[in-house]
């Protein structure tokens, strides 16, 4: 194994140690929309063109996002896409408000063919409203036909500190105690069967 590694390193050292080194599974030379093998994307122009095409697709079916896909934004989208494609993948995006974290996440979700869900916080939005939203998300994701989802939550939407308990349970194990009643579980299990 060591010899194979050394040979690979000697042959492709420039590619392996290129900075920045970007890997994607959604860019292909034949402009296919299918998500394929995870491979290095050394052609930035092709990567940007592919993302611009995906952004145009997103804008056809959703509210229009006027994004400028500069190099750093392109690299962030590829990272977010990689994280979302992992089973149970989740990310905490930290940055200045208005820097595009939500927009890039929505684009990455679209690339992965995932639906995006976000809560609409009002002045009377309570823990029970959050639990109801989470119940709906769990039903959409888990009951036939289950669909992959991205749940976007910003710091301004956390109006009650108790929200963090449910978000922590969601991220750590996926199991939120007392989210469903026994009757709800019976209905869910029947629909899954």
From TrEMBL:
InterPro entries: DHC (IPR026983), Dynein_heavy_chain_D4_dom (IPR024317), P-loop_NTPase (IPR027417). One of its GO terms (molecular function) is dynein light intermediate chain binding. GO terms for biological process: microtubule-based movement. Pfam families: AAA_8. This is Dynein heavy chain AAA module D4 domain-containing protein. GO terms for cellular component: dynein complex. It comes from Spumella elongata. Residues 65-193 form the Dynein heavy chain AAA module D4 domain. Signal peptide: none annotated.
